[in-house]
Amino acid sequence: MTEFNNFFKSAFSVDNVIFGFDEGDLKVLLINRGAEPYKGMWALPGDLVYPNEDLDSAAGRVLEELTGLRDVYLEQVNAFGAVNRHPLGRVITVAYYSLIKISNYVVTPASFAQQAKWHSLGEVNTLAFDHNEILNACYQRLKQRVRTRPVGFELLPPKFTLTELQHLYEAILETGLDKRNFRKKILSMNLLVDLDETQEGVAHRPAKLYQFAQERYEKLVREGFSFELKESKRKPSSPLPA
Amino acid sequence: MTEFNNFFKSAFSVDNVIFGFDEGDLKVLLINRGAEPYKGMWALPGDLVYPNEDLDSAAGRVLEELTGLRDVYLEQVNAFGAVNRHPLGRVITVAYYSLIKISNYVVTPASFAQQAKWHSLGEVNTLAFDHNEILNACYQRLKQRVRTRPVGFELLPPKFTLTELQHLYEAILETGLDKRNFRKKILSMNLLVDLDETQEGVAHRPAKLYQFAQERYEKLVREGFSFELKESKRKPSSPLPA
DNA sequence: TCAAAAGTGTTCTTATTACACCCATGG
DNA sequence: CCATGGGTGTAATAAGAACACTTTTGA
């Protein structure tokens, strides 16, 4: 094989950090590797990119095969290409993250076979390959995005309470937020629709339900606009392992 | 060739958007392609990634071969992998941008052979491959970075005036900034060292020279800190062609 | 009637904006 | 002496941060 052909002794893959939000915690969907290398370890879902497949499509496919979900928020973060990141050859991987409504997630045959499981971000241990690094990069990107774009709603069911929304932001940003200031700011953005419905069957005063105003948001974006959120002083942070 | 081997009929490259600042304008270093495909068109400098080379190293190598410069600000932006982005095969490219002090740039034999030339961002026309898209992605990233990290200094000579710095920000952000507010904010960050020197040979009151306080900045970063800058109302923008 | 979370306004502080004139130099 | 860009402060406004009690429900 000539030197030139060596350039083609390589492959590319995508890895997808699938985020969900449940029980007040930000979670990530990992699979337990059934084969070498790193057999038995937890890893990010991923696959080689098919020859006639765009990168975004590959990331979407990985997600759909695992969760059955389509039309989901998906964002490319970075490429990881250290020479020895894959023990079997030169594989560059492109990292994506997705945001899904965890309530929509059902274990599919594919995910069952692969032993997919949600992990709280704080409880993720050493992963296969360089997946800790990839997870961390994606998490940092999410943290940044959530401050400037209303992507948080992608993680919540269509109807949610303001407290649920606040807890989501607190989990992602690893901070505490002042309830009154949070509500004031969120409501002043005019991106929530008050549904005139309330929670049912809770052992306390039921909260009003809201919906994200997708169309209104898209209109604002077209007109050029920014979404920002800052933190208050509270609550410690749960660091992510390296 | 088996289906599996098809995965290896592909290559990856890096492309490097090299930014410089001169004559009050943000510039990008392009090369005129001497070979097919896209022969004769302007393109971003780039190359295939060597089999035993990390992505960052490849991007650094492209820069060094063209400019002779090392130890330069370099940031990965994104991977571009549309199936048909390269007419000769499946090539995924990883986009980087670098910030160089344009005064340090000397035409090297390699760059001469390749007809390298600085282009003002506003005067870039249709480029080879998907390089307009890549350029735009890198420019957007730079725009964002410059608001939150003091990377602007990478584009200026070691000693600069506050007006030069302001013009740099105005060029990158495509906006106008109020002189007094800009100075107040920049100086209040305590990231500039007043060199007690002034310009010479200018036909007006000579300006004081400043230096970026690298060490002080790194200390602040270690202690956790943010660098921010907002715009005022002025000046139109010079859009970047799609 | 108790526990649990929902809901709600005001004051203080800080950051941002707008804005106009005198100064030092070279030609 | 004039053209050119350098340099400076203050007042008004807007945004953010701090903070505590009443309400509604189910158990």
Structural description of this entry:
2 copies of one chain form a homodimer. Chain A starts with a helix and ends in a 20-residue tail after the last helix. Chain A is 29% helix and 25% strand. Mean pLDDT of chain A is 88; it is low at 1-8 and 232-242. Chain A folds into 2 domains: 2-147, Alpha-Beta Complex (Nucleoside Triphosphate Pyrophosphohydrolase); 149-234, Winged helix-like DNA-binding domain superfamily/Winged helix DNA-binding domain (Arc Repressor Mutant, subunit A, Orthogonal Bundle), CATH 1.10.10. Chain A is built from 7 helices and 9 strands. Chain A has helices at 3-6, 55-67, 109-113, 131-148, 162-173, 179-188, 214-222, and strands at residues 10-22, 25-32, 42-43, 46-48, 73-80, 90-99, 116-120, 192-198, 208-212. Chain A has 242 residues and is α+β, with helices and mostly antiparallel strands. The longest helix of chain A has 18 residues, at 131-148. In chain A, the strands form 2 sheets. In chain A, strands 1, 2, 3, 4, 5, 6 and 7 form a 7-stranded mixed β-sheet that branches. Chain A has a two-stranded antiparallel sheet with strand order 8-9. In chain A, β1 and β2 (25-32) form a beta hairpin. The A-B interface holds A 6-12, 48-55, 76, 78-83, 90, 92, 94 and B 6-12, 48-55, 76, 78-83, 90, 92, 94. Chain B binds a DNA duplex (27 and 27 nucleotides) through α6.
Task: Throw out a few tags for this protein.
homodimer; 242 residues; alpha+beta; Nucleoside Triphosphate Pyrophosphohydrolase; Arc Repressor Mutant, subunit A; 2 domains; 7-stranded mixed β-sheet; 9 strands; globular; disordered N terminus; DNA-binding
